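pinging the channel bc i need a second pair of eyes. not urgent but kinda urgent?? the chain im working w is below, pasted from the shared doc
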Amino acid sequence: MDKKNICLDPFEQFRLWLHDAQIADIPNYEAMALATATRDGIPSVRMVLYKGIEHEGLIFYTNYQSRKARELAMNPHAALLFHWEKLERQIRLEGTTELLSRRASEQYFATRPRKSQLGAWASKQSSVLESREILEQAFQHYQKKYEGKEIPLPEFWGGYKFLPASFEFWQGRPGRLHDRIRYHKNDSCWRMERLAP
């Protein structure tokens, strides 16, 4: 990686690397680690699925009652990580989050497989379950309730937009002399710099 031959726009570079991961036939190439933290700075991390870019924001969806959503409500700062071992590449992002509109969430929810829609209704994500049977019974309840009907978006489920303040593109190199190029937002402009591995 050289600053002379990579995109000046980090979103364009992101799209190129994501496309490379897709055509390299990497399973779940769109999976990303999402790190959140409480108001007191206690972190947690989990994998979520990247669902596109909208107005310079990366989109993902979740249950608004989940731990991640509760933490984002207290502290909108978050970090993302894409890692593609086969390509020896990763992209790190830091920024803030905001809720997507209900309309955007409804449009996406309508494209989900029916079982995933029912699962969203059945699961009180991150809550303690006394048994697996309780979850399966809830799923069966909603399966009967919406049999032959369109499944609406739950009030407690929807999307987020992650607004990056920085991107770091990491390319593995021999001798652990890896390439690291960081883009940092300064007002409305992106500044590019190389970091030591």
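so The beta strands are 31-37, 43-49, 58-63, 77-84, 89-99, 157-171, 179-186, 189-194. and The chain has two domains: 10-101+160-194, 111-152. — does that match what u expected or am i reading it wrong
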